[in-house]
Write a structure and sequence with these properties.
alpha/beta, 3-stranded antiparallel β-sheet, about 35% helix, elongated
Length: about 400
């Protein structure tokens, strides 16, 4: 007769327990990992022991006395699923029924491999926005922001960019936006393609978002159709030399005499204008040195001659509105503030201000679509310089 002692139930308890009542939530896996490594470093455990470490309860066999505090099989299965979804725990490859905490080196390697790569972000952006017009995507890792550049952003469907940004942020934690900078070179190439050798001269006005070109020969109905083609492709208006520009709703026609347009200054009384040279001499007396235009040209429209005052930016001209009004009242001349921007002088102003603040500028460029000057520097731009530049010129100063 052989007598065998009854097999004892394995003790699935640990000396230390966290005594939690709920399953591990967000961030709790790190708490369990720390406790496990502190009290049982590098030790694999069965599912039951790991559960006891967290809950302070065991799984009772049905043949034993019933314990209302015991964990059932379904609870253990849910618990192990939570652990295996966490980067802090893995199955022991020698004994698959056991779980162990990963080492610090393993954790670092996991987190490194799980980091979102720029290539992944770019691939997802191109899936969400399969535009052939995208010529560049810029990434700002610290802010997790991406900016897509197209030649003609004013013609791009911004609603698609907004929808793509919402999806991208939900999936990868990044956002995407559309750069407002228009590629003026691409616009000129397009005009060359549309009008060929008939094209004589090209000018553009960033504030009003329109181009003016001079054509050789008579205008035809086909030319008007090409103007519409240009508008659809670029989002900007195309005018032929001599045509009036119809500005945005609510603004007056910039080519006509009207006091409703802030860029026009018209005498209130019908006084005879001074002779041109006398008026120019008066201008030097009526306007302070800083208020004098960089260029004063005499132009003519259907109402007669007028002065076109050119400043670095039109906004800078408006700052001297009172002095210009006084000149207009005394001279009898109409004055219009030119809409053109002196890009080279504007960029020079930005560079001088940066150098004055002790910042070395490697490169300066003007972004007409964004009404901004972008400087390439190794250090961030002080807020004081950015604000001062904007107050003086009406343009933004940004750093690359």
């Amino acid at each position: 007769i052989s007598l065998h002692p009854k097999k004892k139930q394995t003790d699935n308890r640990t000396v230390f327990t966290l005594g939690k009542t709920d399953f591990p939530g967000q961030g709790d896996d790190k708490l369990l990992w720390d406790a496990w490594n502190s009290h049982y470093p590098k030790r694999p455990m069965t599912i039951e022991k790991a559960a006891y470490l967290w809950f302070g309860r065991t799984m009772q066999d049905v043949s034993l006395d019933h314990d209302e505090q015991a964990l059932d099989a379904a609870s253990l299965e849910k618990f192990v699923d939570i652990l295996l979804e966490s980067p802090y725990f893995v199955r022991d490859f020698r004994r698959m029924y056991m779980i162990r905490p990963v080492s610090e080196d393993e954790l670092a390697e996991k987190q490194k491999s799980n980091e979102i790569k720029i290539q992944d972000v770019e691939q997802r952006i191109r899936e969400l926005l399969p535009w052939e017009t995208i010529r560049k995507i810029s990434f700002f890792i610290e802010r997790k922001e991406a900016t897509i550049c197209v030649d003609f952003p004013d013609a791009a469907p911004e609603n698609e960019v907004t929808a793509a940004s919402i999806t991208l942020e939900a999936e990868l934690g990044w956002t995407v936006s559309l750069s407002r900078s228009m590629n003026s070179h691409a616009a000129e190439v397009l005009l060359q393609q549309l009008f060929g050798t008939r094209l004589s001269k090209i000018s553009y006005y960033a504030m009003d978002k329109h181009y003016v070109c001079t054509l050789n020969g008579e205008h035809t109905a086909e030319d008007d159709a090409l103007k519409e083609t240009f508008r659809q492709k670029t989002g900007w208006t195309l005018l032929f030399q001599g045509e009036d520009h119809v500005s945005e709703p609510g603004k007056a026609d910039a080519g006509r005499e009207t006091v409703d347009d802030e860029y026009w200054f018209v005498p209130e009384t019908d006084i005879k204008p001074l002779e041109q040279n006398m008026a120019l001499s008066l201008m030097n007396l009526a306007l302070d040195e800083e208020a004098r235009p960089t260029k004063a040209s005499v132009r003519r429209d259907e109402y007669g001659p007028y002065f076109d005052f050119g400043y670095v930016t039109p906004f800078m001209g408006l700052k001297y509105a009172r002095q210009i009004e006084a000149f207009v009242f005394q001279s009898g001349w109409r004055v219009h503030i030119a809409q053109a921007i002196n890009q080279s002088q504007l960029m020079n102003m930005a560079e001088v201000m940066c150098i004055g603040g002790g910042i070395t500028v490697k490169k300066t460029s003007f972004l007409p679509g964004e009404m901004a000057v972008r400087v390439t520097t190794d250090v961030p731009l002080p807020e004081s310089i950015v604000m001062t530049f904007n107050e003086r010129t009406g343009c933004r100063l940004i750093r690359k």
